[in-house]
Design goal:
alpha+beta, Immunoglobulin-like, 2 domains, five-stranded mixed sheet, three-stranded antiparallel sheet, 3 helices, elongated
């Protein structure tokens, strides 16, 4: 009887450990390996057909030194020169509402991708108030912290689940009943 309790407690511990793995492990398992020596983003990530998106590179850490190309099926291929960190692109008018398009950033032989969602409705094209097509070293607000992609709530919940399952396993393995003879 004691072996059943120990085995079930061990199984509970292994299950909690398996279910609390970070999202990064799941992404690598699916093949979504977007780890690059440079950061990149598309702002906004949801836009209506005909809208203008900003394509940003993080060149501060030296991961992307040369010119970068950004390509997608929803706008023309854009080249970001080596002395700039962002560019703009206009989404095609015939982009399908609700569709998610892949946007690929390539620099120095390394590529990474993110997604761009097309919202329903259309926007009126507005002229660019910036006379220069590539802003020079814009603000890097909202890019995340040093642990990009990790959610502290998920990590805390995972740690609590693991601690709880280890505690339960210890409790059930040390608990004695009248059936054991002591």
């Amino acid at each position: 009887m004691r072996a059943i309790r120990v085995a079930s407690a061990a199984l509970l511990g292994v299950s909690a450990l398996a279910l609390s793995s970070p999202a990064a492990v799941a992404a690598v398992a699916k093949g979504d390996n977007n780890i690059t020596p440079f950061g990149f983003s598309v702002l906004p990530q949801t836009i209506a057909a005909g809208g203008q998106v900003t394509l940003q590179l993080d060149r501060d850490n030296g991961g992307c030194v040369g010119s970068a190309t950004v390509s997608s099926g929803v706008f023309d291929t854009i080249t970001i020169p080596g002395n700039r960190s962002s560019a703009t692109a206009v989404v095609d008018w015939d982009a399908k509402p609700g569709a998610v398009y892949k946007v690929t950033f390539s620099c120095d032989g390394v590529s990474g991708s993110t997604s761009l969602t097309i919202a329903s409705g259309r926007t009126n094209p507005t002229p660019n108030p910036n006379p220069y097509p590539y802003p020079y070293r814009g603000v890097h607000a909202g890019e995340g912290g040093t642990v990009a992609g990790f959610d502290l709530k998920e990590i805390g919940l995972g740690a609590a689940l693991i601690a709880g399952s280890v505690g339960a396993a210890y409790h059930f393995s040390r608990r004695r009943t009248s059936e054991d003879g002591t």
